[in-house]
Write a structure and sequence with these properties.
By secondary structure, the chain is mostly beta strands. It is built from 3 helices and 18 strands. The chain has 2 domains: about 5-20 and about 40-135, Ribosome hibernation promotion factor-like (Double Stranded RNA Binding Domain, 2-Layer Sandwich), CATH 3.30.160; about 195-360, Porin (Beta Barrel). It has an 8-stranded antiparallel β-barrel. Strand 1 (about 25) and strand 2 form a beta hairpin.
Length: about 350
């Protein structure tokens, strides 16, 4: 039941009867009359911060009842009220009354105002003591909020040490995988690199026979806010090298290599633009085609490469990749077939274009 309705019912339905009778005189063993010693009502009040406190509640009960709780135990043995804040934003009152004769009374009320519940509880306790208490409803003084700040010597909060960086972080160390300022300027304390795995498909220009050749690559990346280290491998599929006179004779060439590179990381919002460079080592493999005794030969491949990357973070752990590299072989590579002569020379400068997908582990 809402507390405002309960308060109205208490006021309107309070019976117009005389106050609760005071204890009648009793006789001693000698027959001389004497009054019974008055005893207080046990009063307990529990309320959250910001609600009227026990002092206000007790004063309200005594105001409505017209008497002190110190001598009301003959009518009301105990009164306990508890106000609890609800998750819905309102308050709930649970009132328990232990009367001198009869079954204990329990009431539960709800209202959006903690003050209304406090006044309702005080009035219901007072009416239990004296039914005429409802006729004394008037203006009460504003309650002091529970645990209101006071000028008492004890401090509200314990003294705090000077604002300095703690020697040990209170929680898990902060870690960032994004490109950005140096760690010492961002408060990042975990300097472990973030690990990424990337797969690419690409086209190579000018290194193997024919103008363009397909290939695949896989890269393991270690990333810090300003630096990125790449360890990868690539394979460029077999391409035909033929003589001008006979398209059925010549050789087939393919290239496999491992690479190591480093990148400076630049970032704008969800886009990252690493500037990378490195070297690769591998094998340039050729096999004769259309000759009496075809042989398979391989040469040690050494090359340097450099180029920009583009990475778009479509998810916290997933990014789309694109890159363009310039490749410079460290030697003048050529492929000869017995009886046919040189069927292919590797260009002094080549290029590669990749598209791929990266996942942060």
């Amino acid at each position: 039941m809402p507390a405002r309705m309960a308060l109205a019912l208490v006021i309107r339905l309070a019976p117009a009867v005389a106050p609760a009778p005071t204890p009648t005189p009793t006789a001693t063993a000698e027959g001389a009359p004497t009054s019974a010693v008055p005893s207080p009502t046990a009063f307990e009040w529990i309320a959250p911060d910001g609600c009227p406190d026990a002092t206000f509640a007790r004063a309200s009960v005594e105001h409505y009842a017209g008497r002190s709780l110190a001598d009301t135990a003959a009518v009301l043995h105990a009164a306990r009220a508890e106000i609890v804040a609800q998750a819905q934003g309102d308050f709930r009152l649970r009132l328990e009354l232990e009367v001198a004769a009869g079954t204990p009374v329990q009431r539960t009320l709800r209202d959006e105002s903690c003050r209304v519940l406090a006044e309702t509880a005080a009035l219901m306790i007072a009416v239990t003591i004296d039914p005429l208490a409802a006729t004394r409803v008037g203006t009460l003084p504003e309650p002091a909020p529970t645990r209101a700040p006071t000028p008492e010597p004890p401090p509200v909060e314990p003294p705090k040490p000077p604002a300095t960086k703690p020697s040990t972080p209170p929680g898990p160390p902060t870690r960032s995988c994004d490109a950005g300022p140096a760690l010492r300027r961002t408060g990042v304390t975990d300097r472990r690199p973030c690990v990424g795995l990337e797969a690419r498909a690409g086209l190579q220009l000018g290194l193997l026979p024919t103008a363009i050749g397909p290939g695949v690559a896989i890269t393991l990346a270690l990333a810090w806010p300003r630096l990125r280290i790449e360890l990868g491998g690539s394979h460029w599929f077999r391409r035909p090298a033929r003589t001008g006179d006979d398209r059925n004779r010549g050789g087939d060439l393919q290239l496999s290599a491992g690479s190591l590179g480093a990148c400076a990381r630049l970032r704008h919002r969800a886009h990252e633009f690493p500037l990378c460079g490195g070297a690769e080592v591998g094998a340039l493999v050729g096999r004769g085609v259309g000759i009496a005794v075809p042989r398979r030969e391989q040469l040690l491949w050494l090359a340097a490469w450099a180029g920009p990357r583009w990475m778009w973070s479509v998810h916290r752990r997933v990014a789309l990749l694109a890159d363009v590299d310039v490749v410079v072989p460290m030697a003048r590579y050529r492929f000869e077939v017995g009886g046919l002569g040189v069927v292919h020379r590797v260009d002094p400068v080549g290029g590669r274009v990749h598209l791929g997908l990266g996942i942060r582990l």
